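Exercise 7. Given the encoded structure of a 145-residue chain, write a plausible sequence.
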């Protein structure tokens, strides 16, 4: 299954989100995945705890954040959530990001690495990034992916 298929199945594309606190951004990104039963409520909190302990190593210069935690923190199914913020938010003192993809891997480091690689490959395109940032609806985002 592709990232697009997983996002659509989870109904996990959120566009134009206006939140200025990184912890609340992570919780917002986790909500649709919790609602579908793909991750537990604990998973989002584990991502926040991880960030506080280890920093926001998942924020990239292009303004993309890929927050995640270990599978044992409550992932029942590999999943993705995409949040496009109205304005960039700094994650625990990191550079700011306006594209946030919360990722939950069902098992092992291999799946985490594969999932992050798939996201980076998907977004390693300046035209696609600009188009995503200009998108105003879930349907527009789905068409771009």
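Solution.
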């Amino acid at each position: 299954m592709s990232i697009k298929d997983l996002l659509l199945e989870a109904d996990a594309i959120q566009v134009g989100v206006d939140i200025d606190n990184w912890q609340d951004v992570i919780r917002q990104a986790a909500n649709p995945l919790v609602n579908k039963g793909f991750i537990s409520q604990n998973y989002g909190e584990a991502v926040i705890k991880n960030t506080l302990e280890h920093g926001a190593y998942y924020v990239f210069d292009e303004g993309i954040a890929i927050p995640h935690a270990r599978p044992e923190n409550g992932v029942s199914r590999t999943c993705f959530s995409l949040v496009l913020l109205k304005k960039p938010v700094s994650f625990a003192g990191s550079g700011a990001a306006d594209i946030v993809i919360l990722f939950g891997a069902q098992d092992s480091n291999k799946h985490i690495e594969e999932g992050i690689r798939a996201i980076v490959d998907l977004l390693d395109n300046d035209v696609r990034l600009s188009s995503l940032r200009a998108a105003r609806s879930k349907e527009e985002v789905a068409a771009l992916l």
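Remark. The chain is about 45% helix and 20% strand. Students should compare their own answers with the one above.
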